[in-house]
Amino acid sequence: MAAMPPTGKDVNQALRLCLGTTATGAEFGAVSALSINHDCSRLLCGFAKGQITMWDLANGKLLRTITDAHPPGTAVLHVKFTDDPTLAICNDSGGSVFELAFRRVMGMRSCDSRCLFSGSKGEVCCIEPLHTPPERKDHPITPYSLLAMGSLTKILVIGLKPSLKVWMTFPYNKSDPSSVPQLAWQFVPAQKTFNPVLAFCRGNTVHFLLVKKEEMGSIHVVKQRQLQLNCDIISLSWISSRTLVLVDSQEQLQVVDRPSQEVLDQVDLEQVQLVYNSRHFKSLATGGNVSEALALVGEKACYESVSSYAGQILYLGTKSAHIMILRSWRERVDCLLRQERYGEALALAWSFHEGTAKAVVGLYGDPVKRKGVVADKMVEILIQFVGRSLKRCPDQGKIQVLEQHFQEVVPVVVEYCLLLQRSDLLLEQLYGRLGENVVSRGMFLESLESYIISQRLAHLTTPVMKDLLAHYHGNGLMERLERLIVHLDVVQMCWENRLYDAMIYVFNRGMNDYITPLEKLFAEIGPHLREGRTLTNEQVVIGNKLLVYISCSLVGRAYPLGDIPEDLVPQVKNKVFEFLIRLHSVETSDEEEVFPFIRTLLHFDTREFLNVLALTFEDFRNDKQALEYQQRIVDILLKVMVDNPDFTPSQVGGLFTFLARQLAKPDNTLFVNRKLFDQVLEFLCCPDDDSRHTERQQVLLELLHVGGVVQFEEGSLLALAEKAEFYQICEFLYEKQHLFDKIIDCYLRDNLRKVEVFSYIHNLLSMPGYTAPEKQAVWDKTLQHIQELVALDPSRSADLVTCHFPAHVGPIISQMEDDQLRFQFITSILESREGRPSDSVVTLDPDLHEQQVGLLCRFDPPGLQAFLETSQLYPLEAAIKMTEQYGHSEATAYLLEKKGDAQGAFTVLLTKLKRILESITREVGEAEVEGGGAKDCSAPPLAGLEGSLDDIIALCHRNSKSLNKQQREVLWFPLLEAMMAPQKLLRGPNAHHTSEALKELTMKDPVYGKGKLAEIQGLILGMLDTFNYEQDSCNICLLQYKRCHDAPEEIVVFSCGHLYHCQCLQAKDCGSGLDSQRPQKWSCFKCSNQGGRGGALSDQRRVRSTSLAQTNVTSSLRETGLEAHDNKVCVETTLDPQQVQSWDHLRSLYRGPSRLAILSELTHCHGNEKAGLLHPAPLGAGSVFQGEDFKLKLSPPPVVEE
């Protein structure tokens, strides 16, 4: 660093600190030594003129400047922290060593110096304190704070704590005087413990000293094997516990494995231009007052230019700093792969796998884990190696060239696959790729020969074995093939590759062994079945093969193809039977039950095993020995399965079904105790066992169908079946006895088959083949249970009655007590059946039609109208009374109109409409009282109102054509009155607000004003606006007072009904008698100027000098703080009865076309389309509907789903 101040950089090589100045360098000289403490918070700098400084690396602050730590006039060669942050060691150019103890008392920093070794006794040129890594901080050596010192003649190891003590002195061998002493500490594992080892050298020999603490508390130093090199070492560093990095005087870096003393790598450092410490060792900055020996050593000294830390070594060059690290094991392998040196890469990876590699970095964990990681990498290399060899295979040329190319690949691949014990990778994936090339395939197959003979490869896959045989046969290598086959375990190979058919073939054809395959297959599935575990798919395949193999062996067929030689057939049958009926297996255990093989087959698939036996028994007619085996197997089956809870009723039933079939044969030779059948019958029909009821019934039914009925007494069987509720068994027995009527009871009592009784009755009564008495019995039984059938399914009962019992419809209906059931039955009778002949449709009497009307009123009101329109047999008057009784207004109106009473029908519908309107009006009124405004009307009332209005308008339209004008007015006028009734009811003392509320009611629903309803909406709103306009307009200025919001104004209303602004009357001089005590007297301007037009009534009005009502109306503006849409109304009035009557007349006054004229024109419809308020007809010229703003609203908004 010459005279520059020390600097610091971060990992990104960005300058972080510049400590001191050039002035400091000029004063102290060049930096000659550096040391950072263990937590990187402090930096010690030694200078060529002898000063020492301490810096805070956190902020770059100078903490201490030490000038008296060692004799003046000597350069600082080394300064190093110990593990104690308050203790450091200094070595100067005089060869002395000093201890620096840092203190801080009362905020004052100080440094005490103590001489550890004097240069007069031998100059020390290097020092190295023992630094304990964090994970070894509790090591017993740590408290002693060991320090190694290297002089020109010897090595010293001393302890600084608890007191200064020399633990060891070791002299050098004879060496070159210019050689540089070197020291390096490292914790090395030995016998499950870690102890520090000191490596030191001077010249070409490296010595190792193991330091450990004895049980007595003393430190013992043990000399270990030395390392001899052919070079002069100038730098020595540990890079791992097994690896050292050396630099010789020729600046050649050598990586050495200490245990094997092998040089692993060598690097030339010439380009680094290493910095030497010669100037400082000669102490040129202080006058060169050093010994010649020390100056000679300084020529090669580079102590401060080399530093090792955490597996890295830093080298300081004249222009740059260099970092040397060991590559990780993966990087070393990848480096060889990049150079396409696959063989060397595999060899290196295998050394990592086996733990024999040197300088291993990056491979952690226990040995098993490390081997797994390396093995995965080797598999990757092998696949890559094969792919590269195939890709670079010569396309053309001599066969020798191709063989030479693959000779470098195939043997290597085979060797390492087998070393990794990855025969699956070798024989499947890699062979699949190498087999694409003829040359590589042949070389691969021949490469396997040595491994097969040496027993390193005992099994081959099927494709490899096939290609191996073809290759050796095609090349005439039959002798070599024979040697291979002898060493191959063909059977085991078949078994491991799941080649069960091939294994059986080898045993049968090659060794005439038909039993060993059975033992192997049974051993695969037997334990799982005995333990009750579920079989895997592979085990199910084995079980099925086992059944087929037994079947083939017992009938003389070879498995899987061909036939067994005729002379071996009897022998094979006997051996297989003897095997099946063995009492125990060869490898028996105490827990094994008797007859394990038959039990295994029964548990695997009872039905299929019995089918195998049934097929086998067909060929036993003339074989006396085989018949004995047949009887023996049946006895074993009965012994194993009967009274054994391990088998289900289905399995036991399957056994007796099998026995029943065998016993039913004419040439049967089997003997089965009849009591066993009775025992099985009682087992299946046990009424106390509710489990597997359906399964037990099906088993017994199957047993009866195959002839088992001959084994039972029918009477007791029927009794047991009825007791166990086996109704299918009862049906079977009744059908056998031709008691078909009793089968109906079986169906009705069987909950699972009740609905099938209808099909059974219909088929029996309709199909030929049954006698008349049998059908009559069924017919009688059906009538007996007809009520139960109707309750079960009214619709299907109606079909049955219509088809087979048309004359009994009335009595059947009269016997029904449940009205709901009667309604469903009658409805089903009346419905037209698809595909039924017209002559089979039942016509009910009028009284039943009348009964149906009443039932519809009660149980199906929506369907009542459709029935009334389609049926013509019900009594009209009775139907009207029933619809009125149950409150079905639409149906009543329909019947009245059908009767000819249109007015009565109109009255019924109008009453319903008024009732709905009153309900809605009441809700609106309650809402005004509670919240001051109209509330939302719920959807159902509005929908009901719309439907009711549609019905009554349609009625009026249908009957208007046959009525005169007055009759039409009788229809339409009450309808309009009913629709306007809410306006009259809502208007009261707060007339303005109720009118607005009605408007809000008509406009509230968001779907209002859409489609055809918009026309009605406009008409209602137009009527209200006209009414308010004529009531609130001044008869002089013709302006409504509500439109003037500039200032408060007075309104005068006379008994004649005319309304004026006070200002307008004053302008016409119609006021007189202004007095502070009495109100001003007004006269009507319009009546006063009409002359004789008013007659006596006009004179009477003019005589009256007081207005009907004088009203002060104040329009409240937004600035007053009230809402703009609310008006504050103050009324001061005194009314007599006559004035009240006039006021009411004024409120009801409507100036425009008469309502009769409107309704009359509504009735003038032409065309066949329905015309009405919701369906307007075309209008003629001059009609009141021609007005641009004329609209009519007679119904609330419909409820429309968006």
UniProtKB/TrEMBL annotation:
<dbReference type="GO" id="GO:0006623">
    <property type="term" value="P:protein targeting to vacuole"/>
</dbReference>
<comment type="similarity">
    <text>Belongs to the VPS8 family.</text>
</comment>
<dbReference type="Pfam" id="PF23410">
    <property type="entry name" value="Beta-prop_VPS8"/>
</dbReference>
<dbReference type="InterPro" id="IPR001680">
    <property type="entry name" value="WD40_rpt"/>
</dbReference>
<protein>
    <recommendedName>
        <fullName>Vacuolar protein sorting-associated protein 8 homolog</fullName>
    </recommendedName>
</protein>
<dbReference type="InterPro" id="IPR045111">
    <property type="entry name" value="Vps41/Vps8"/>
</dbReference>
<keyword id="KW-0853">WD repeat</keyword>
<dbReference type="GO" id="GO:0033263">
    <property type="term" value="C:CORVET complex"/>
</dbReference>
<dbReference type="GO" id="GO:0005770">
    <property type="term" value="C:late endosome"/>
</dbReference>
<dbReference type="GO" id="GO:0030897">
    <property type="term" value="C:HOPS complex"/>
</dbReference>
<dbReference type="Pfam" id="PF23412">
    <property type="entry name" value="zf_RING_Vps8"/>
</dbReference>
<dbReference type="InterPro" id="IPR015943">
    <property type="entry name" value="WD40/YVTN_repeat-like_dom_sf"/>
</dbReference>
<dbReference type="GO" id="GO:0034058">
    <property type="term" value="P:endosomal vesicle fusion"/>
</dbReference>
<dbReference type="GO" id="GO:0005769">
    <property type="term" value="C:early endosome"/>
</dbReference>
<feature type="domain" description="Vps8 RING finger">
    <location>
        <begin position="1034"/>
        <end position="1087"/>
    </location>
</feature>
<dbReference type="Pfam" id="PF23556">
    <property type="entry name" value="TPR_Vps41"/>
</dbReference>
<feature type="domain" description="Vacuolar protein sorting-associated protein 8 central">
    <location>
        <begin position="443"/>
        <end position="617"/>
    </location>
</feature>
<dbReference type="Pfam" id="PF12816">
    <property type="entry name" value="TPR_Vps8"/>
</dbReference>
<feature type="repeat" description="WD">
    <location>
        <begin position="24"/>
        <end position="65"/>
    </location>
</feature>
<dbReference type="InterPro" id="IPR036322">
    <property type="entry name" value="WD40_repeat_dom_sf"/>
</dbReference>
<dbReference type="InterPro" id="IPR025941">
    <property type="entry name" value="Vps8_central_dom"/>
</dbReference>
<dbReference type="InterPro" id="IPR056939">
    <property type="entry name" value="Znf_RING_Vps8"/>
</dbReference>
